[in-house]
Structure formats: C-alpha cells, structure tokens
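4.2 Preliminary Data

To establish feasibility before requesting continued support, the project team ran the inverse folding procedure on a target of 314 residues. The structure was first converted into the token representation described in Section 3, and no sequence information of any kind was made available to the design step. The complete token record follows.
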C-alpha cells in the first residue's frame, strides 16, 4: 500500500510537471485578460467582450492541449511504465510512434474545438474535407505509403532502434523511426534518411540479429615461398585463432587454398563472436597484426596488387 501511495505521488508530480509551463503561460494571459477588463476605458460592448472571452477560452484549450502533449511525450511516465510492462525491444519503436499519433490527435481535437468556439461549422468543414478527399489522397499517396511502411516495420520487426542494418548500399545503425522515414547513422557518422515505403519493400540484412560474423582473408604469397614455411605460417595462424576467446572455435579454417595467377594463396576463414561493428573491426585488426608478425618472423612475403583481400560475408 505504501508503495502504491508513493507511486501515485510520483505520477501526480509528473502530471504537474507536464502542465507547469502551459499553466504559467495561461496565468500570464489570464492576468492580462483581467487587467484589460479592469481598465476604466474598457469597451463594455457585447461584441468586444465576447471576442475577449473567446480568446481566453481558446488559450485555455491550447493550454490543455500543450499539457497533454507534454504528458504524451515518449519520455513521460506513462510510456515509461508501459515500456517496463511490455519488457520487449519493440517498445523502442512502438512507444515513439504511438506518442506521435497521440500528439497529432490531441492537436487535431484542439484545433476543431477552437474552430467551433469561434462559430465555424465543424461538420461543414469535415464535409468539405470529404469532398476534397480524393484530390488529397492522390497528393498524399507517397506520404500514406510511408506511414503504412512504418506500421509494417513496427509490426513485422525486421529491425529495431539501435540495430546495425544493411539496405542495398546503405549500412549503419538505426537511430529513429517516424511516420515518414527511418534514420540510419552510417559508420562515417553521416545520417541517411530512407522513406519507410522503400524499407518495407526491400531486403534488409540485420547484422545485429546475427549470432556471429564472418571474416575471410586471402593471402597471396610469392611462388618461391618454401612449402615448409607455408606449413609453419598456417600452423601459427591457427594457433593464434584458436587462442582467441573472441573467435568462434568451431569454424576456423586456415589452409593452402590454391596456386593462382597472383601467387600461392592461403585462405583464412573465421567468425567473431560479436556482431557489433566497432568490436568486430577491433578483433579483425588485432588478428591482422598477429598475422603480419608471423609472416615477418618466417620471412614470408605477399605478392601482387591484391596482396590481402577481405570478404566480409554478411
């Protein structure tokens, strides 16, 4: 019971915080309203007083909408509680999406109420919008497609915020999903915005969902490299890979692969246990330095323009 009381006090505090700025702004306008009506030369004509009252009521509606907008923020206690109850990664996408929908509905209702407050026929306005619905639908076809694309992404969950994905030639971390588009941060820190309709209809590779990530190297050695040195190099590279706790031990391949037109090719294939982009590059770099040390130790040199080739099989 004590816990519930504390939670209720906390929730009430969040509500007060959401309405604090709107209430202060309305208080200023209300004081101004009273000051105008208290002026000795105030025009007490019915028309002017009615307009003044309509302005005050409109400001009150905007104040309530502003407070509800703050309350519907994705960082508010309502969505924080929903997130903890769901205990799912999908809330990272769903909560901001629902938050934006609720904000749109709030401001739409506020607009309609204010319009009605000023004597306009809301039903007539809606009917007029209905007559222009076809033209609007044609003009907003792409926007609607992007909204439905966003819904498909959220429901189908091919990725979530924070995942590293590949879509065609674009690769990076998902930063945001909104009504129209998805924002992806590339490795060079460039922010790419992709329409949701494009993502919903494309083949997406989600590297964050991979249990391991492949690295494949092809070392081309000179033709005159002695066979026993190749054997020693292969054995020591295997030892390095098997000695690393960051590499999957069941998929290590180091072999004299072929005699190509470039040279004697040694194939190295392994999988990192992490799929995180930064950690993956660090592991690969550490292994590369150790391979270079082994080659230098045995005085084995690589040849050709493509002396070392990578193939990151994703």
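Position-by-position output of the design step:
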């Amino acid at each position: 019971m004590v816990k519930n009381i504390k939670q209720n006090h906390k929730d009430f505090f969040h509500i007060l915080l959401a309405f604090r700025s709107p209430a202060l702004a309305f208080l200023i306008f209300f004081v101004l309203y009273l000051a105008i009506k208290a002026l000795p030369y105030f025009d007490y004509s019915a028309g002017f007083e009615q307009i003044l009252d309509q302005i005050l009521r409109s400001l009150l509606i905007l104040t309530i909408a502003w407070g509800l907008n703050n309350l519907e923020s994705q960082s508010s206690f309502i969505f924080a509680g929903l997130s903890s109850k769901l205990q799912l990664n999908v809330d990272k996408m769903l909560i901001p999406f629902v938050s934006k929908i609720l904000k749109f509905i709030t401001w739409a209702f506020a607009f309609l109420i204010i319009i009605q407050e000023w004597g306009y026929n809301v039903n007539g306005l809606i009917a007029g919008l209905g007559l222009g619905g076809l033209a609007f639908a044609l003009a907003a076809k792409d926007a609607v497609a992007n909204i439905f694309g966003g819904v498909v992404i959220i429901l189908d969950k091919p990725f979530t915020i924070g995942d590293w994905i590949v879509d065609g030639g674009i690769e990076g971390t998902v930063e945001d999903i909104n009504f129209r588009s998805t924002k992806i941060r590339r490795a060079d820190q460039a922010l790419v915005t992709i329409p949701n309709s494009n993502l919903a209809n494309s083949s997406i590779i989600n590297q964050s969902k991979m249990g391991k990530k492949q690295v494949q190297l092809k070392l081309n050695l000179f033709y005159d490299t002695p066979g026993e040195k190749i054997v020693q190099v292969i054995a020591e590279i295997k030892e390095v890979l098997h000695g690393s706790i960051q590499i999957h031990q069941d998929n290590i391949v180091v072999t004299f692969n072929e005699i190509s037109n470039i040279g004697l090719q040694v194939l190295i294939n392994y999988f990192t246990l992490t799929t995180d982009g930064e950690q993956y590059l660090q592991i690969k770099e550490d292994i590369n330095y150790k391979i270079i040390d082994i080659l230098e130790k045995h005085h084995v040199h690589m040849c050709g323009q493509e002396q070392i080739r990578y193939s990151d099989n994703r």
